[in-house]
Write a structure and sequence with these properties.
Blueprint lengths: L1 H15 L5 H19 L7 H15 L9 E5 L6 E3 L4 E5 H6 L3 H17 L1 H9 L1 H10 L5 H12 L5 H17 L5 H11 L16 H11 L11 H8 L7
Parallel strand pairs: 1-3
Antiparallel strand pairs: 2-3
């Protein structure tokens, strides 16, 4: 049983996830979307200047990471320091993470990491591996939007702790994207280390179960190159992004 749990199920997930039709994965993402928002108790933030700054970051990143789905990004008004990628291309950045970030590069690199999970379809793998028998049966028979299955899937994604292999792949996407933009990937490692080093963390705090942020920071330092491009946002745009959830819409 242990062999099946720790070897067989992950192997099945790795083999099965790429075979799931993109239309099915998008439908799963839509089905769990409302539940994920409810878990983080966050409404979408849409202050115009902040949203424009966020869209500017997303536009820059999307040119350098190929994904099977169009990315649908949003900022949610939650104090939790987290970012979440759902199956099908939805990417949420929570305001708590923006407030803990010290620069646009930290936010951009985290978003690039989450887009990397979309590119690798890691959310789908995670659901197959952790969704239980009901999810697998629903996937096989085309019914993955039942209320019980959706709630289980949403909670699984919200507290997702990906494998070291998945995290390394997503980190690689972030590193490559930041270097392609002429910026350093190191701010991602610095933010992860800063957040995971805090003493009080809830079950949905960013990367609470992710592997060894210090090792990941060292990998980003090893891949680093001199900065060759101007900041991704101006000082005014960065202030607007910081206020995206508090400024008037």
């Amino acid at each position: 049983m242990l062999l099946i749990a720790f070897v067989g199920v992950p192997l099945i997930a790795d083999r099965l996830a790429p075979l799931v039709p993109l239309s099915v994965e998008r439908r799963i993402g839509v089905a769990v979307d409302r539940q994920v928002r409810a878990i983080f108790d966050g409404k979408e933030c849409a202050a115009p200047e902040g949203r424009a700054a966020f869209d500017k970051l997303m536009g820059a990143l999307s040119r350098h990471i190929a994904t099977p789905f169009p990315i649908e990004p949003a900022v949610l008004a939650s104090s939790t320091a987290n970012a979440v990628a759902l199956p099908g291309g939805k990417v949420y950045v929570l305001d708590g993470l923006i407030q803990k970030s010290k620069s646009p590069d930290e936010v951009a690199a985290v978003v690039a990491h989450e887009i990397g999970h979309v590119a690798e379809r890691d959310g789908m793998r995670h659901l197959i591996q952790n969704g239980g028998t009901s999810f697998l049966i629903g996937l096989l028979f085309g019914d993955v939007t039942g209320s019980a299955v959706v709630l289980t899937a949403a909670r699984s994604l919200a507290s997702a702790s990906y494998s070291r292999v998945a995290e390394t792949r997503a980190d690689r996407h972030a590193i490559d994207a930041m270097l392609a933009l002429g910026r350093s990937p190191v701010p991602l490692g610095e933010l992860l280390t800063r957040i995971t080093g805090e003493s009080k963390r809830g079950p949905f705090d960013m990367l609470s179960g992710h592997p060894l942020s210090s090792d990941r920071l060292e990998a980003m330092r090893a891949a680093d190159r001199p900065v060759t491009a101007p900041p991704l946002l101006t000082d005014d745009e960065w202030r607007a992004l910081k206020a995206i959830c508090t400024a008037k819409s």
